Amino acid sequence: xxxxxxxxxxxxxxxxxxxxxxxxxxxxxxxxxxxxxxxxxxxxxxxxxxxxxxxxxxxxxxxxxxxxxxxxxxxxxxxxxxxxxxxxxxxxxxxxxxxxxxxxxxxxxxxxxxxxxxxxxxxxxxxxxxxxxxxxxxxxxxxxxxxxxxxxxxxxxxxxxxxxxxxxxxxxxxxxxxxxxxxxxxxxxxxxxxxxxxxxxxxxxxxxxxxxxxxxxxxxxxxxxxxxxxxxxxxxxxxxxxxxxxxxxxxxxxxxxxxxxxxxxxxxxxxxxxxxxxxxxxxxxxxxxxxxxxxxxxxxxxxxxxxxxxxxxxxxxxxxx
Length: 321
Known about the structure:
The longest helix has 17 residues, at 170-186. Helix 1 links the parallel strand 1 (5-8) and strand 2 (30-34). The chain has ten helices and twelve strands. Helix 2 (81-96) crosses helix 3 (110-117). The N and C termini lie close together (11 Å). A twelve-stranded mixed β-sheet has the order 3-4-2-1-5-12-11-6-7-10-8-9, with helices on both faces. By secondary structure, it is an alpha/beta fold. The chain folds into two domains: 1-135 and 284-321, 3-Layer(aba) Sandwich (Isopropylmalate Dehydrogenase), CATH 3.40.718.10; 136-279, Isopropylmalate Dehydrogenase, CATH 3.40.718. Helix content is 33%, strand content 17%.
């Protein structure tokens, strides 16, 4: 079995390359893929031909992937966009072959990829789903430093708030619940997952006086799934779901829309939050932050989320059959 987690370079003008050598502090056996020219000056690195090749202590193992140009921190270059895309595809290929035990992806700039290479996907997650065989996936944000843990899955993601009520269909919600349930068993080692489902409206609709989606769609769906053996609670008022006693009663929360889930986890565990893509045929985690062009190259980047993402990928790899 492959032992290393592959850390992709992400956008070379962002903080990803400078976080790579700092990620060695995670204690995770990792290998970095990217152009060594983009690493921070003074980084100790050794090129490897195979992801599991040994390197001197303290050196960053590098699967070399040369880009079209050097990188200037904070200034994405369109000519490097295709290199970013190719690194992701190459990483997935290694994971699908079983040559790495999981992938942790450094942040990308969707705008830079679109402008430089015509990248047509809304983001990392959708591209990974395509590479994984057009499989249905959901995004989980998981804490690593708070107890009880906070794990949230938004059923709808990057769409305007006004579109959420029509996008939150029975099929969409059921898919999010089923993928989350399976992943909690397979990747988190929870044999009988408890899942809380948030309502869409304030006070979960207040019996239909503040909205009817809970009464007409969410509650009937949860009843059907409970009859099939899933341990589900809800629909619940979202404003009472995320304090510690509430989190102790479930293993993951399904939320109706992006900010309903991401605001609480980023408040509770901003530096330790990890983005996990559930449903893929390989393990993928990512730090819960962006390219941070404003601080790139200034030595200010915090490796906490990258370290947490690597450790979570390692732990998932140990759990997944």
